[in-house]
């Protein structure tokens, strides 16, 4: 099949979760299918050239400056009915539809759009070929969780409005696509209830287990790591929660305990909070494997989220013990106490972390079990699920 893959990112490895997922699935299937990536993203020129060397064409939407996104605090004055995330991506709607229409004469057999918030780009398109929408997160589920965790009347009102708008948007945009793909059974159920549709597909997140493999040396004692894009507010909120509420409890038991926060574009407020708190903030190292390798423990104290966490799969593949909240590790089907330690409140989370930092043998056994489970999520296997989606679409 000839597939046009539309995204707001540049698929690449190493890279954040969505980028690495898209890259690995296309890499595994490039021998069977022909891919063209159409992206609104700028930069990552070398990564784009790498895709082209693999036989994957890359099209940029435009070289012109995009329209200015709407101000995030204008939600109560906005009458479009669209959630803020969609208003930001929707600025490309006209350009994207025109670009896709111009590309259709290349004879694509299907168009796949990454992220439900980008689904608006094909609204009104008369393509005459199958359209696939991949829900990397069911965003209405995410916005509901944001609402449930907010404090203060104005904050809760804004979050409630975003949740209701996102529900209406995802229900509407889903009707434009013949095939919907979720990343876990939990999110497939949520999406089925939201849209009233059956036959939804699942293609889980995965990991390149050859690239992310257990390190040869021993980890540094009493060290912890968290990886992820710090521009995404659930990540920096999770770190603020950890630094403020959990780390002091850990250091009360293990005075030498340290944390490394590894990921692009950390906000200044997080840097300020980390200063003097025995926390290292590493801005976009490109490849986080060295930091994961050195850590004795990976922590995932997420308070809100949806989808599944690639950061957990990468740590599992490297044989690391992990402590996560339930939200952080949902959808992966991990066995609590064997593959991962699960705790939600600050005291429980700190106690689980202290226990694993002190008991190297137990941490090693958990890491070995996690590595074994990670093999089930290798992209060489998951590509078969993606290929099966394309086969059903072709039929």
Number of helices: 15
- Oligomerization category of the chains in this entry: single chain
The shape, in one word, is globular
Biggest sheet, strands in spatial order?
3-2-1-4-5-6-7
Structural class: alpha/beta
Radius of gyration: 21 Å
- Overall residue-averaged pLDDT value: 90
What characterizes the major β-sheet? Answer: 7 strands, parallel
Q: Which residues sit in consecutive blocks of at least 5 with pLDDT less than 50?
A: none
- Using DSSP, what is the number of strands? 13
Order of helices and strands: EHEHEHHEEHHEHEEHEHEHEHEHEHHH
Distance between the termini: 11 Å
**Beta content:** 5-15%
The percent range for helix content is 40-55%
Supply the key terms.
7-stranded parallel sheet; 6-stranded parallel sheet; alpha/beta; 15 helices; 395 residues
Please characterize this protein's 3D structure.
This protein is α/β, with parallel strands linked by helices and 395 residues long. 44% of the residues lie in helices and 14% in strands. The chain has helices at residues 17-29, 45-53, 84-89, 93-103, 139-149, 153-174, 185-195, 233-253, 268-274, 289-294, 310-317, 326-329, 346-358, 360-374, 379-394, and strands at 2-7, 34-39, 57-60, 110-114, 131-134, 179-182, 201-202, 223-227, 258-262, 279-282, 297-300, 322-324, 341-342. The protein has a seven-stranded parallel sheet. Strands 10-9-8-11-12-13 form a six-stranded parallel sheet, sandwiched between helices. The longest helix is centred in the middle third of the chain and has 22 residues, at 153-174. 46% of the residues are buried. The mean pLDDT is 90.
């Amino acid at each position: 099949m000839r597939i046009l893959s539309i995204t707001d990112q540049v698929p690449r490895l190493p890279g954040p979760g969505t980028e690495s997922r898209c890259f690995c699935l296309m890499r595994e299937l490039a021998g069977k299918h022909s891919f063209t990536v159409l992206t609104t993203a700028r930069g990552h020129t070398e990564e784009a050239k790498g895709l082209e060397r693999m036989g994957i064409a890359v099209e940029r939407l435009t070289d012109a400056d995009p329209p200015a996104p709407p101000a995030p605090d204008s939600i109560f004055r906005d009458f479009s009915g669209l959630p803020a995330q969609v208003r930001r991506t929707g600025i490309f709607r006209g350009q994207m539809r025109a670009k896709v229409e111009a590309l259709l004469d290349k004879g694509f057999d299907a168009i796949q759009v990454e992220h439900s918030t980008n689904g608006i780009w094909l609204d009104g398109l008369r393509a005459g070929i199958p359209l696939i929408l991949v829900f990397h997160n069911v965003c209405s589920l995410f916005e509901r969780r944001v609402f449930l965790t907010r404090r203060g009347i104005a904050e809760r009102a804004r979050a409630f409005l975003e949740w209701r708008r996102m529900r209406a948007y995802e229900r509407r945009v889903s009707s434009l696509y013949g095939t919907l793909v979720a990343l876990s059974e939990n999110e497939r159920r949520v999406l089925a209830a939201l849209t009233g549709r059956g036959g939804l597909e699942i293609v889980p997140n995965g990991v390149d287990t050859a690239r992310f493999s257990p390190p040869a040396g021993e980890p540094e004692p009493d060290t912890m790591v968290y990886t992820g894009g710090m521009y995404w507010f659930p990540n920096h909120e999770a770190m603020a929660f950890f630094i403020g509420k959990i780390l002091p409890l850990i250091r009360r038991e293990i005075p030498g305990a340290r944390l490394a926060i590894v990921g692009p574009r950390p906000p200044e407020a997080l840097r300020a909070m980390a200063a003097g708190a025995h926390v290292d903030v590493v801005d976009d190292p490109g490849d986080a494997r060295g930091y994961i390798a050195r850590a004795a423990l990976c922590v995932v104290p997420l308070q809100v989220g949806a989808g599944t966490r690639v950061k957990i799969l990468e740590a599992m593949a490297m044989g690391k013990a992990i402590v996560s909240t339930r939200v952080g590790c949902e959808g992966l089907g991990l066995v609590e106490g064997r593959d991962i330690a699960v705790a939600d409140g600050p005291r429980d989370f700190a106690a689980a972390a202290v226990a694993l930092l002190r008991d190297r043998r137990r941490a090693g056994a958990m890491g070995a079990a996690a590595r074994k489970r990670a093999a089930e999520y290798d992209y060489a296997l998951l590509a078969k699920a993606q290929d099966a989606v394309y086969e059903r679409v072709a039929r």
